[in-house]
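Continuing the batch. This is chain 6 of the set; chains 1 through 5 are on the previous pages. Same settings as before, nothing changed between runs. Recording input and output for traceability.
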Amino acid sequence: MEFHDDFPQYELRDQHDEAEGKKQRRRLWNVFWIMLGITVFELSLGSYAASKGFDKTALKVIFISLTIVKAYYIVYAFMHLGHEVKSMKWIIIGPYTTFILYLVFMATVTEGNYSAVHKVSPPDKVYAMPTPAELEKAEATEHEEAAPVKTGNAAEGAKKE
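Output for chain 6:
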C-alpha cells in the first residue's frame, strides 16, 4: 500500500534551474569572502596592535563586534536563517540575544565591578622581590627586643625597679 499526497516529492521540491543555482553559489561565495576579509582584518589588527600599544578596551569592542558580524553571516547564510519568515528568526535568535545581553550585564555591572567595589588588586600586578638588604633589615627588626610596655599602675612600676 502506497501513500499518495498532493505535495511533490521532497527530493524534487527544492531543485532549481541553473540560473537559480548560480545565484545561490554566488551568494555563498560572497559570504565566504566577507568572512575571510573580516578574519584577515582581525588577525592583522591583532598583530599590529600588539606592537603599537592600542587601547585594550577598544580592541575588545572591535573584536567582539567583528565576531558578532561573522556569527550573523554564519547563521544567515550557512544555517539558512536568512530565508526564514520573521517570526521564525526571532524564535531562534531571541533566546540567544537575551542570554548574550544577560552575560554583558553580568560582566559590566555586577561581576565586572567587583574589584572596584572591593578594592581587589588585579592578578596581573607584579610585585618586586625584596633585595638582600631589605631581607636582612626585616630579619633584624624581628629579633630586636620589644621595649617594655608601660602600664598605668604605679605600684607595678615600683616593683619592677
